[in-house]
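Follow-up to my earlier ticket, as requested here are the two runs.
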Amino acid sequence: MGCIEEFIQQTAAQKTHPAFVQGWQKLALNQWKYKNHQAAISALNHALAIDPNLAEAWYRLALLSGADSDLQQCLRAYERAIELRPDWQIGIDFLKSLSYLLYVYKDVEELNECRQKIRESISDFYQRFQSFPLDQKKYLYQWLGMLGTFLLPYQGDETRDLQRKYGRMVHEVMMSVIPSAQERPQMPALKANEPLRIGFVSGHFFEHTVWKLMLHGWLKHLDREKFQMYGYYVRDFSDRCTEQAKTYCHRFVMGSKSPQEWFEEIRADQLHLVIFPELGMDLEVIQIAALRLAPIQCMSWGHPDTSGLPTIDYFLSSELMEPADGEKYYAEKLIRLKNLGIAFSPMPPDSRSPITREEFGLKSDAVIYGCLQSVFKYLPQFDYVYPEIAAAVENCQFVFITHFMTKKSRQRFEQRLERAFAAKNLDYREYCFFSRPLNLYGFTSVLHCLDIFLDSLEWSGGNSTLEALYYAQVPMVTTPGRFMRGRHTAAILTLLGIPELIAPDASAYVQKAIELGQNADYRQWIRAKIQNNLPNVFEDQAGVRSLEEFICAAVQAFSTSGRLL
């Protein structure tokens, strides 16, 4: 339990006076801001225990119920909010249409049911939305920033049609509020010996996966003679990476602004092309991306799924990550950049000695497998993988990280593991270790404790895979998924020149994980090969050069013909 949860638990009984209601709600919002979902849920429940007629607290509790993996709580809370505020009906109905997206599904049956329900609910609301008058679309604007489709691709299914419906609704709502953003701006004149103005819009100009994967390498290595970089950071928070970003950009703007203010700010710079390194995680950035800011607008795979927005022209992906039929999964035109499409720039290693197995509480003599992804990447149909490996390797341990797990989400996940291990007559508690959330030092320390890194199936590691290779040269096993989001590690291992760690399917994945677990000499041989081949990945700038080629070609084509590539 974290400090804030302990504080809430210890003080809740003392703070039951109605005067404390506002304080509980403020605490909930503060903890929500920092993604401390458990503390936010607890604070809202305390507020509602004092005053059950708080409509805002009810709908916020419903919003958090997806992270809490509690669908029934979500639906009940929305209904209670509508009872208290009937005038919120349309806004709540919009949020309610996204209710069937949970962090942890209790089993395959619930996952399949929620897949079907989310398709029906988004489609039904979209059909209603078509007949909304302008004032109702304007009214929805205040609800857009509450909930999005971030969790949709984590259900492991194709998303393009649903994302298009959601994206069109977001676009139309934003156009009802900022109608001047509907027209695509003219391409600024191309002048000889004058660099193209390229904008990067993100909420992640700080030490974050998006910075480490895309923004850092692109801003650092793009040719200054050809391109002038403009950074638009939609947050107030600043760290060493923010300061670094400023040095790379001709102009860097940051702060909390409305979409209208960002529209005016960015339009005034007369960009030739704008890039959103991710769309899907940051709800404010999605609203900005629904506006026409530049003649050409692109997104990339910081959140590896189509945006569905009609304002995004291109999806900047990786030739090594995309399946042969990748085009059909995007509303945008797919651009396969060379190799990984990025120039990965890892953070410097911490000067402190890594935390040891004993200090973490791990078994000193076991084969340690790292399962270090967010819990929503783990689909129930693959729970059998861990007991299959454990039954063969025997003295082993699987490390999971409780990052983003609420109490209920963790209970659900552990119940799944308990059932899966019990099917092999094993006790999951003997094999599964749950680490607290970790900072970069803690994460890299865990990497040094691992014998094998187990990639998550159907939603692969990206930054975590690269860091496991860079900081600790950890042997790993993966299998390519159906979509690009399940093929990151396979692409990285291909570029690294170690394709033998890529299993063709889940069954072969299990056997490869067992082989690595049973053969310490093989693991050591793999570690040496990783070490020797690291420059193939960490000094590769082919993706940046192909990005430069794409930008020049796209801008030239539009300038000449007014058309996209």
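Run two:
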Amino acid sequence: MRLDPAAAVPPAAERRVQQMTVHGTELSDEFHWMRAANWQEALRDPAVLPADIRAHLLAENAYSDAVLAPVKPLIEAMVGEMRGRIKEDDASVPSPDGPWEYFESYREGGQHPLVSRRPRGGGADQIMLDGDALAEGRPFFDLGGAVHSPDHRLLAWSHDDKGSEFFTLKVRDLAAGEDLADELAETGGDAVWSSDASRLFYIRLDDNHRPLKIFRHALGTPQAADALVFEETDTTVFVGMGETTAGGLAIISGAQSDSTETWVLDLADASARPRLILPRADDVKSYPDYHPGWQGRPTLFIRTNDEAEDYRIVAAPLADPVKANWTEIVPHRPGVLVLSATVLRDWLVRLERENALPRIVIRNLTSGEEHAIAFDEEAYSLGVISGYEFDTDTLRFVYSSMTTPNETWDYDMRARTRTLRKRQEVPSGHDPEAYVTRRLMAPAPDGETVPVSLVYAKGTPLDGTAPVLLYGYGSYGHSLPASFSTARLSLVDRGFVYAIAHVRGGMEKGYRWYRTGKREYKVNTFSDFIAAAEHLIAKGFTAKGRIVAQGGSAGGMLMGAVANMRPELFAGILAEVPFVDVINTMLDDTLPLTPPEWREWGNPIADAEAFRRMLAYSPYDNVAAQAYPPILALGGVSDPRVTYWEPAKWAARLRAAKTDANPVLLVTNMDAGHGGAAGRFDRLAEVARSYAFAVAVTGAPEKLA
């Protein structure tokens, strides 16, 4: 089964050249017109997209449908396989909070979650939110945050029905099962309750989709009467807010990619204003958690990279947390990255990573004694689930590997015993022993070694003939977990080796791994991915032209870069909501993410050197007259993160420049944004389309092994 490039004529995008000069360099963009002048309005209502742009995107969709027509049966088969591996009436392990246990579940055939609770210790379930009912009749629906009030009477919940990530926040009376009149528009989706449950604190997004203001809403009053309690004037900062596990205090953060500033807000004081506790310092990121009475006084436990690149943990009095008052609790150890720290009444729990493998370390806050939870597989994923309760000896964590389904454990930190609460069910069957998971270290051009996580079926020939799907990201310090996925089995069971390249720009090997994959070192991300591909070839897993590269968002930029640099390595490129128009986007300070992103990539407006460096790798600006492999690019009309015109312009320029007959396909979701379809089964169809593309371009078997 192959694609059919001759099934239709690809759309010929009109060329309307726009030129500008930046730092003495002339830039020419023949497809700039695809950026709608009313893009902000289109985020809120995709129907107002200009007619010529909409017509072009629909023509691209029709062309892609025609070329992909031969693989439609495979897509349908894969959706069936993927759905068969999902326990449709699944439920999370309930999380206790006082008299109740809170959880999410799905009904058989349901697309959206049910947010529920039951009396602690047993009793009838109470459905607080029915996602399926709320989504009925809407082409897109995403259930956002849902947080119950301290007295358990009310539920603040949010939804997005455009995919634009402008969330509407509502309040539900849980006894009545009905929403109050309160309706807060254009929020970030989350809320924090005051201690007496009479007020809500929330972040409102501005016209450019930036989270810069926090408001206080008194229940029963109009949104127009809400009080502004915090405002950030620096548009390079993202404001965040959350309540501490101990309660009574909210933490407000102003985050840049390489620094933070932190305030606290007393949730018991109706007139309280945020108090600055950790001022901003260049290249310093600090994340506090709160203990109301450690050693007899309110204390902050702060995870910080101040004089500690891979982070350390210090304690400081809440009343005066200046650096001179810090007490070191967990010292810095180079190469051991402290990923998170959770404070409970008697315990400090940290998740850390060394040599790309995570472990949980538990510290008794009275004795200082520590012990660790770790596992033996070559590559695995480990995560801590923060509960609602501060006074507890129970820690919940989730373990999986690329062969082992998710396991949810409750760990008694005092007795040091663990109880399995849930093992992910795969209704159609899954035998972990039928698969192999590996961790390779690929040599990079500068002598570094790049971790590569693999999974493949036992019996897969490792003689250079197997197809590979190689996934990468490499930005913002985000690390890719070597976790379990039921969907990818549809590739692995067809003879694929599924590989994850843990390239620089993530933090798999510590903060240094991130620092040496950003700004002036960004090209390391691309060369690391290419090194991973070449190592898989050298070790006999696959061959040149048998690898499909996949990445999304900033990982889509990685896809565009490696397609330009080494197109012959790849059988195909899967670029999902790809950030490929780097220069034009970073020169446009009206776009939602541009000012905050300057810390990650550089500011090409103010810095001529950063401009030239970014221009040298920007995928859109480096499309060349050369042969490219088949490419499938995905976008969303209401995407506020990577705007729809980036993949649209890239596809048009690729098609105009390349010298081969391979198809360039662009599929734009006209009803969704950055995350694609919100329904769990609708999302399977998108994954199956990408995987069917990978099967088609490599000539892998259509049928399961």
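The only thing I checked on run two: The two ends are 16 Å apart (CA to CA). Let me know what else you need.
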